[in-house]
Amino acid sequence: MKDFMMIFIGKEYTDLGLSQEEMQARMEKWFAWGNKMEQAGILRGGEALTPQIRRVTGQNRTVTDLTSADVKEIVGGFYLIKAKDFNAVQEIAQDFPDYDLGNTVEIREIMVFDH
Amino acid sequence: METKLIDHLFRHHSGKMVSILTRIFGLANLEIIEDAVQDTFLKASIKWRKQLPDNPEAWLTKAAKNRVLDIFRKIQTERKNLPELKNGIETIAINELFLDTEIADAQLRMIFTACHPKLNAKDRIAFALKTISGFSYKEISSALLTKETTIRKRIFRARKNIQQHNIQFKIPQGKELPNRLDSVLEVLYLIFNEGFHSNNKTTLVRKELCGEAMRLCKILLKNKHAQTSGTYALFALMCFHAARLDTKVNTNNEILDLKNQDRNKWSFPLIQLGNAIMDKAVENDEFSSYHYEAAIIAEHIKAPNFEQTNWNKILQWYQHLYKIQPTASHLLSMAVVSLQSKNYIKANYYFDQINPEDLEQRAYLFYAAKSDYFSLLNKKEKALKFIDIALRKVTNNLEKEYFQKKQEKLLK
After folding, report:
1. Chain B interface, mutation test: which of A38, A73, A81, most B Cβ atoms within 10 Å?
2. What residues contact residue B160 under an 8 Å CB cut-off, 6+ apart?
3. Could you tell me which residue ranges the RNA polymerase sigma factor 70 region 4 type domain spans (chain B) (predicted)?
4. What residues of A are in contact with residue B92 (Cβ under 8 Å)?
5. I want to staple B115 with a disulfide (CB 3.0 to 4.6 A). Which of A111, B136, B184, B277 is the partner?
6. How far apart are the two ends of chain B, measured CA to CA in Å?
7. What is the domain extent for residue A56?
8. In a domain, B326, yes or no
9. Which among A24, A34, A98 is the nearest to B69, CB-wise?
10. β-pairing, A104-109 with A2-10?
């Protein structure tokens, strides 16, 4: 088993103009997904990120303050899970509730030095 | 599983769930949260009649988690302080709150909230029993021997005060902490005493209250900011008292005083635990009233039998206690202790300083002690006069019977 990170990228619900009902229906799916991973014993943790962004870029360390509405896509959070390989994680990521909004799951393996 | 065990599980779990959900939705939505948790448990108890889940506690946690969205909806329709909901990913953060480590944190926040100095002293106890300990209104009313409507009023007032004073759902820090912690210890001490000195006939209720106070004290001791010498001393005091809780009443449900309790039945593990905790409590020189109270009861426990009790030592501890807490109740104790060591002059010296009215509903204890005093001096008539007053003032049936026995003896 290896450790993987699923990073969630896309638009925020409020920026998409979803109604409260739609949001709640999606929340329900998120809960169900989280519970499913938890029960399978593969969930190691996760964090949600607030939509406020401060970017520091380049030689001059240029500072820009942004919100989710200002950017095309935003990293919203991540889950850490245990899985055999990328294919297994891809399978788990099928339950991500927001594909229909054009949102993305990026799967990355946690680097380990074991020599 | 027995109904009793399920009740117990619900009760403990309810406090946890209410605390976690309050972190999500805030104290402003406490009533909705409590109703939702109550409802979850109600549904569980119906479901469990048919089949019990493998892991009831995990089942309840999951059920409470599923309730989060219901609560969102409810709050939304009532248009009350709705937390912002922007993204499904937020469920990750909510999920984290249901982890064991976070549960302890949430419970501690609730303890500090319930014991906030801005709440009325009586409201704190009722509110804590409801919100942290998951007692129903009915259970609180029977535990505190107070009418259910009064309990409802107290809890309602506590909730209102929390709103009015904008009390935050936080663990206080820095300069604020010592004062807030004192208030918490006081509430736990009172809950324990309600159990230990309860006028309640059923031992079960008494044990529940004492057990709850000890459980909450343990939660405090697990937090490095709350594990002060005062908290340790209070826990030691509770251990020493709890060790003899079972021997306070005999099989006929009659009250037994220290003299007549079966010392062999005192719980040795609890005494040992109390001793170990007491060592922790005296690591620095800050002694609280809990230290002296624990020292007094430890002295009783040390004595192999009632006759060999070191009354002088106990009187010294009371004198220390009286210095930081000059109350009529301690004066009475000193009078009683002096009687035990047959120092009648000293006993009288303390009796003379007491205004029975200061003892409020425990004034009957003063009259009973005075009766003992005269009885020891062989002044039967006076002794009878005072036991009469005590009998008129006492409300607790067990104690009433106890006094009646004394009266009969005097009449013989």
Report:
1. A38
2. none
3. 110-161
4. 30, 34, 46-48, 77-79
5. B184
6. 52
7. 2-109
8. no
9. A24
10. antiparallel
pLDDT digits (tens, 9 = 90+) for B286-335: 899 999 999 999 999 999 889 899 999 999 999 999 999 999 999 999 99
Instruction: Judge residue B267's burial from the number of C-beta atoms within 10 Å of its C-beta, 0-12 exposed, 13-18 middle, 19 or more buried.
Output: middle
Which chain A residue lies closest to B89 (C-alpha atoms)? A48
Q: Which domain holds residue B384?
A: 363-412
Residues pairing with A55 in the sheet: A64
Which DSSP category does B225 fall into? T
Q: Which residue has the tokens 């079960």?
A: B204
Residue A55 lies in a domain: yes
Beta carbons of B371 and B383 less than 8 angstroms apart: yes
Is A95 near chain B, with CB under 8 Å?
Answer: no
In chain B, which residues touch A (CB < 8 A)? 62, 65-66, 68-69, 72-73, 76, 85-96
| Interchain CB distance below 8 Å, B88 and A24 | no
For chain A, how many structural domains are there in total?
Answer: 1
Output the CA–CA distances (angstroms, integers) from residue B124 to B33, B153, B196, B257, in the order listed.
19, 12, 18, 30
pTM of the model: 0.83
ipTM over 0.85: no
Estimate to the nearest angstrom the gap between the alpha carbon of B295 and the chain centroid: 19
